[in-house]
Amino acid sequence: MNALMTHRPDFFDALSHIAGNLAAHAPLAPLSWFRAGGPAELLYRPESRTELSACLAALPAGVPVCVIGAGSNLLVREGGVPGLVVHLGAEFAAIEVLPGNRIRVGAGAMDVKLAVAARDAAIAGFEFLRGIPGMLGGAVKMNAGAYGGEISDIFVSASGIDRQGNSIQFGPAEADFSYRHSAIPDDVILTDIVLQGVPGDTDRISARLAEVAAARADAQPVNQRTGGSTFRNPPADLAGGRKAWELIDAAGCRGLRLGRAMVSEKHCNFLINTGGATADELEALGELVRERVKADSGIDLVWEIRRIGLPAGQSRGAK
Fold first, then answer.
1. CA atoms of 44 and 63, how far apart (whole Å)
2. 159 in active site
3. Please, what's the b/e burial string for 267-293 (b: 16 or more CB within 10 A of its CB; e: otherwise)?
4. How far apart are CA 89 and CA 191, in angstroms?
C-alpha cells in the first residue's frame, strides 16, 4: 500500500463536512520554489481562521498536520506528505497598522509586502524583511533574519491554532527566540502576528529597502529555482567566524552537481534546480555538501531549509 494512503479511510470521512478547499493527492511541487517533490495526501486551503480551527478539531488524533506558506525555504520529498497539509492563502495576508508604530499582520502575508507597508506608514525597523522571501508565519517560527535584523527584534506577540483546534497566544517569553529558531511548537499554525517598529522617514526607509534588494540580487541566485539559504551559519566559536558559504566553498563544493541539482556558483549556500531536478537529488546534494564540509573542517552544517514528507528512489552520482 502507498504510504500516503494509510490515513485515508478515517480522516477523509472526518473532514467531509469541513468548509474550505480540500484536495486529495494534491501536487505540492507548484507550491515550492524548488518546483520539485511529491503530493499531499490531503491539501487544505482554509478561507478563515474559524474554518481552520474547525478542521483541526475534527481531524483524528493520529493524522499528521503540516503547514506550508510561500514554499521559499521548503523541500518536499518525492514520496509526498502523509496526512493533512495546510496552505495559508490570501485570507491570512491582511496587514493592519496599529497605534504606537505597531503592525498586525496575517501569517500568510509576504515578508516583502510587510516591509513596503511599514515604509508607507513611516515605520522603521522592518527593512530587513525586504531581503527575506516567504511569509510571516514561517519567518516567525524560524526567527528569520538578514541584513542586520531578525524577527525577534520586532516581535510583540503571535496568535495561532493548535493541533486540537484551540487558539493559543505567544509573547516573547513563550516564543523564546534564538538563532533561526523559536520555541513555538511545530503543531501550532500561526495566524496573526503583532510587530513593533519605530518612527521613521519614508524616504530613508525607501533607500534602505532599495539597498537590501540590490544586495540580495547581487549576492544571491534570485532568478533561479532555489530554496534560499540551505544551511544555518554555525556558531562563530566553532567555525572561527566563518559563514556556512565559506565552509562550503573551502570544501570545494561551489558548482558541485548531483544529477540536475547544483550548488550555486554565485552563492554556494544555495542549492539550484537546474531543470527537472528531483527533491531526492536536491536533498542528496545537500547531504553530500555536509559530508565534504565535515571532512574538510570538522563542522556539522545544520539544514536551514525545511524538509518534509517521505523520500523515494535513489539519487545519481555527483560529478
1. 14
2. no
3. bbbbbbbeeebbbbbbbbbbebbbebb
4. 11
Q: Which of 41, 78, 150, 304 is catalytic?
A: 304
Q: 134, 144 in Cβ contact below 8 A?
A: yes
Beta bridge partners of 102: 98, 196
Task: Collect the ranges in the chain with pLDDT lower than 50.
Answer: 1-7, 9, 313-319
| Tens-place pLDDT, residues 176-222 | 999 889 999 988 999 999 999 999 999 999 999 999 999 999 989 98
Which amino acid belongs to residue 99?
P
Grid coordinates in use for 97?
Answer: 497598522
**Strand extents, DSSP E, 171-211:** 189-196, 198-199
Say how far apart CA 254 and CA 62 lie, in whole Å: 43
3-state helix, strand, coil in the chain (%, to 5): 30, 25, 40
Active site residue 48: no
- Domains defined for the chain, CATH in brackets: 3-90 (3.30.43.10), 91-218 (3.30.465.10), 222-308 (3.90.78.10)
Query: Which one of the listed residues 180, 225, 257, 260 is annotated catalytic?
Result: 180
Phi, psi angle pair for 43, to nearest 5°: -105, 130
Say how many C-beta atoms besides its own lie within 10 A of residue 310's C-beta. 15
Query: Active-site residue 174, yes or no?
Result: no
Q: State the Cα–Cα distance between residues 263 and 283, nearest whole angstrom.
A: 11
Tens of pLDDT along 70-82? 899 999 999 999 9
**Is 153 within 8 Å of 144 (Cβ atoms)?**
no
Of 72, 229, 264, 315, catalytic: 229
